[in-house]
Amino acid sequence: MEPMSRQKVLAHACFLLVVLLSILALLPRGTSDIAVWRYWAQTSQEQGFRSAYNNPAVLIDQPPLGIFMLSALPRVLEPLGIPAYRWEAPGLSGFKVTTLLFLWVSALITLAMTRSLPLSAALLLALLLNVVLGYFDLYFVPTLLLGLWALRARRWCWASLFLTLTCLIKWQPLLLLPFAIPCLFDEHPDTPFPRRALVSLLLPGAVLAGAFVVFCGPGMLRALHLAATHRFLSGNALNFNWLLTCGLHLVHPAKYGPLGADGLCSAIKVTEWRVIALPKLLFLTAYLALWLLSLKKSRHFHECLAAALLAFLAYFTFNTGVHENHLVPALLLAFLLFRENTRTWPLLLALALLANLNLFLFYGLTGDGPPSLRLLGVDTTLPAAALEVLLFLAAFFRFIRTPSHPASHHHAS
Question: What is the rounded CA–CA span in Å between residue 118 and residue 14?
């Protein structure tokens, strides 16, 4: 057997081993969020999907397609005697099985896009803790990958449909949509404005989203408003606002509560504009600057990816109401950016570690919490949050100072 053939056999064997080991992610019970998904699903069964989605008392803050997917599980699985949701005790549930299936499909799509078994296996491992803990963000990973793939291939209608479907499952990918527009332009600055391509990019998604608005009614806008106005300063996201949360515990313990008896920081709800104005201003300033800069300098697909990635990291770093599981879109962008330009491997590695560290430091490897959050007497979430802020600032200033250039041709393989 030739050496290259041995390498291919070994790569396939390692990929299959990772897939088989990922089944173990189904055993832990996950976080208490699964109980929320179950409540939404049960309410949709009892009241009907449309009535439940438009009922203000149910407090649904997710897009309609994501809620429909969650509510469909009991209808399909429970008549077969399979529990759709299980949280009180460890054990298999239909919900976690579906998250793993979506992750497997995502790994296969990545393999088709990149022709790289190691990169596909790495994506599977980087997102596996989301299966363990029970986050349905994995439902949108296939459509987001396909949407980005279509953008790269300049298939504007397909990109529009897949990206819109992604945003109808979870709201966070909405932040990426404006960065699809710079992809319309090619590398030649004298090219006329691509009006037909712009219509192809905007119209199919607008029609699809409009159909959902008509069917779902005002509940869709209410859910978006609820998601955009979460009162948590930081919902266990290791970012600038987590550092601010700790500062408020120390400076205003009477109002926001002191640190825990073990010296640990905990999430707080804040509505005062004098507290949240600065983080939101930092987020909006960085986001708009990156979008305007991408319109000016992003003449290559990898630069559009980089600008979108940094814009999403600006949201994660500075916006209020961000939660610990919100780095999934950033991870996907980082993997595809590495495929386009292998020199970005430090950013990919740092984001993969940070995303999993964020989940682990609050929920451990089972959803029951980590064994300890203190290191040398310090809450370990604080240096981790500081590192995230530094990572964003370093990547942000590097991007705005780097001139436009083609991607490295040394693709991952």
Answer: 8
Q: Give the pLDDT of residue 291.
A: 94
Q: What is the pLDDT of residue 404?
A: 63
Per-residue pLDDT at 413:
42
Structure tokens of 336? 């595809």
- CB-based contacts of 17, cutoff 8 Å, min separation 6: none
pLDDT at 152: 93
Q: How far is CA 272 from CA 187, 256, 401, in A?
A: 46, 12, 35
List the structure tokens of 311.
């814009």
Cβ(67)–Cβ(58) under 8 Å? no
Q: 389 pLDDT exceeds 70?
A: yes
Number of residues assigned to the chain: 413
Residue 65, CA distances (Å) to 109, 136, 216, 244, 362 in order: 21, 12, 10, 34, 28
Res. 132: pLDDT tops 60: yes
Q: Mean pLDDT in the chain? A: 90
| CA dist., res. 22 & res. 127, Å (int) | 10
Per-residue pLDDT, averaged over 49-59, amounts to 92
Question: What angle separates helix 219-228 from helix 195-216, to the nearest 10 degrees?
Answer: 110
What is the C-alpha separation between 22 and 124, in angstroms, rounded?
Answer: 8
C-alpha–C-alpha distance, residues 296 and 293, integer Å: 5
Phi, psi of 269 (to 5 degrees): -100, 130
Q: Which two tokens stand for residue 270?
A: 């804040």
Tokens of 227: 């998601």
How would DSSP label each residue in 57-108? GG---S-HHHHHHHHHHHHHHGGGT--S---SS----HHHHHHHHHHHHHHH
Torsion of CA 288, 167, 357, 345, to 10 degrees: -60
